[in-house]
Write a structure and sequence with these properties.
One of its GO terms (cellular component) is chloroplast. The chain is an alpha/beta fold and 535 residues long. The protein is built from 21 helices and 17 strands. The strands form two sheets. The protein has a nine-stranded mixed β-sheet, sandwiched between helices. It is elongated and about 70 Å long. The structure holds adenosine-5'-diphosphate, (4-amino-2-methylpyrimidin-5-yl)methyl dihydrogen phosphate and magnesium ion.
Length: 535
């Protein structure tokens, strides 16, 4: 094998870099004008330290981005010898080599968002600042890592002034924890939520467009409270505080999840809220795992994929949170946009769909089965269940996660008999009586609609928001709303505030769009916004 030359050995590196930038421009043009756009994967560059224990730093960023379906490249600023006891040693990468890594990635790959973690020397901050001026990206998220949860210093106080002067004015978001916020503010004590609010406004004056002061370490707080400030409004973001030793790396993971969501196209506030939910879910799932002997354990970022394997569908317990963003395919729409069902499904799950139903009314049985098999692979790789509309034979043949039936299809109790206790069964219901019957028949959830008029189903009676409310209140099963729902009315639907309404099912809002991935991430962000409380 011919060894690759080091970049320093390539003559006229600038020419190479200009060539790459020109290629990038051309690529963008092709991408915008064809369906290749959908296959572009959102990209976060993490500039951070390596944690040998893999709970925090670069390793946490890679796992978080993987869990969120986003590509993550890495520029390593330091190598730490670290475990659940603490940090045993730190080896700082020379700034010249950090600069080379940055140029390698930024000159070649289409980075959407840069996320920074441990920046252990002023020289590293300076080269980063320089590179970001040379290769601007869509967003910069700065996690000003200074001290590890174990209390070990990862970046000394000398970096504070260069962070303030060079990096924060370029940042879209800065995410200090309590100790870091205090250090940025010259040692100001931060003990209460009101102190955190005040700190957020002061740090905002250092130039970052948004500030998130994280309260993981707030003493005596029953909830995990973070304060978000966008320069205008202060928001208090609360989640339950998970009692666990496994919280090492929460800060890194939160910032990389926010970056991943921004890379997918979310607005800043939606990205922050979705990421806080992600941390809470991962901590809850990992609260009892046991890695290492020290006081600070790592958590499991890929829990969603794991929980699916052990799942639900093999254990016979359906998870209603899967109904959050329910994608229903339509072959007519895919034909119109000249894409395959599998491409459409891939884009929908990459954009954030949490469950998929294949609905093929006209397909030949054998083609339908092949499509279903490929779609199951795609969905399961993302931890998303796949259901088949109506065709129990297809669901059995491809071992789908379940079936969705309408009122004129095979009755749900027969479906249960055929599929057994472990598969998911959904039933379309317009009335309270139908919802009651679905429960008696052993269904797992009901779909209620059409909430709004729609072209997808001919002669479909619209139940409206009031009909949806009535059915939700009466139903003993979780409900997903369907019919004419899109990103402009999804908030109003979820806003009815009845706890067993668990999400929205959509057809046109995802598949009658040029870019399914973008439509799915927008709708996902809208739903997160509509369902997360803020004060
Ligand atoms: N025990 C916990 N339960 C739930 N959320 C937590 C817990 N600890 C931290 N968090 C959340 O994790 C994120 C990172 O916070 P924090 O631990 O303060 O940052 P860092 O890891 O940088 O010290 C925040 O959103 C915080 O609210
Ligand atoms: C390389 C590296 N980067 C960041 C952190 C902070 O993470 P935490 O605050 O959870 O210890 C860390 N411990 N190590
Ligand atoms: Mg922490």
């Amino acid at each position: 094998m011919v060894p690759l030359p080091l970049i320093s050995q390539i003559p006229k590196f600038n020419q190479v870099s200009r060539f790459c930038m020109a290629m990038k421009k051309q690529e963008e043009m092709v991408v915008a004008s064809s369906d290749r756009y959908e296959t572009r994967i959102p990209h976060v560059l993490s500039v951070a330290g390596s944690d040998s224990g893999a709970g925090a730093g670069i390793q946490a960023d890679l796992k978080t981005c993987a869990a969120r379906g986003v590509y993550c490249s890495t520029v390593i600023t330091a190598i730490t010898a670290q475990n659940t006891v603490g940090v045993q040693d730190v080896n700082i990468v020379p700034e010249g080599f950090v600069s080379k890594q940055l140029k390698s990635v930024l000159s070649d790959m289409q980075v959407d968002v840069v996320k920074t973690g441990m920046l252990p020397s002023t020289g590293i901050v300076q080269v980063l600042h320089q590179c970001l001026k040379e290769f601007p990206v869509r967003a910069l998220v700065v996690d000003p890592v200074m001290v590890s949860t174990s209390g070990d210093v990862l970046a000394g106080p000398t970096i504070i002034s260069v962070l303030q002067e060079e990096l924060l004015p370029m940042a879209d978001l800065v995410t200090p924890n309590l100790k870091e916020a205090s250090a940025l503010l010259g040692g100001m004590p931060l003990k209460t939520i009101s102190d955190m609010r005040h700190a957020a406004t002061l740090i905002h004056q250092m130039g970052s467009k948004n500030v998130l002061v994280k309260g993981g370490d707030l003493p005596d707080s029953l909830d995990a409270v973070d304060i978000f400030f966008d320069g205008k409004d202060l928001h208090e973001l609360r989640s339950s505080r998970i009692k666990s030793r496994n919280t090492h790396g929460t800060g890194c993971s939160l910032a990389s999840c926010i970056s991943a969501e921004l890379a997918k196209g979310s607005s800043m506030f939606s990205a922050v809220k979705a990421s806080k939910q992600f941390i809470e879910r991962a901590l809850r799932y990992s609260k009892d795992i046991n890695i290492g002997h020290g006081p600070q354990g790592p958590f499991d970022h890929l829990c969603r994929l794991k929980s699916r394997e052990q799942s639900s569908y093999s254990q016979g317990c359906f998870n209603p949170t899967d109904l959050f963003l329910y994608a229903v395919t339509d072959s007519g729409m895919n034909e119109r946009w000249d894409r395959s069902i599998t491409d459409a499904v891939k884009a929908a799950v990459e954009g954030g769909a949490t469950i998929v139903q294949i609905r093929e009314k006209d397909a030949k049985t054998r083609d339908f089965l092949e499509v279903a098999k490929s779609c199951i692979k795609i969905c399961h790789a993302h931890g998303v269940p796949l259901l088949i509309n109506d065709r129990i034979d297809i669901a059995l043949a491809c071992d789908a996660d379940g079936v969705h039936v309408g009122q004129s299809d095979i009755p749900a109790h027969e479906v249960r008999r055929l599929l057994g206790p472990n598969k998911v069964i959904g039933v379309s219901c317009k009335t309270m009586e139908q919802a009651e019957q679905a429960w008696i028949d052993g269904a797992d959830y009901i779909g209620c609609g059409g909430v709004y008029p729609t072209n997808t189903k001919a002669n479909n009676l619209t139940v409206g928001i009031d009909g949806l409310k009535r059915v939700c209140l009466a139903s003993k099963l979780p409900v997903v709303a369907i019919g004419g729902i899109n990103h402009t009315n999804a908030a109003a639907v979820m806003g009815i505030g009845i706890p067993n309404l668990r999400g929205v099912a959509v057809v046109s809002a995802l598949f009658d769009r040029q870019c399914v991935l973008e439509a799915a991430s927008k709708l996902h962000a809208t739903l997160v916004e509509a369902t997360t409380s803020n004060v």
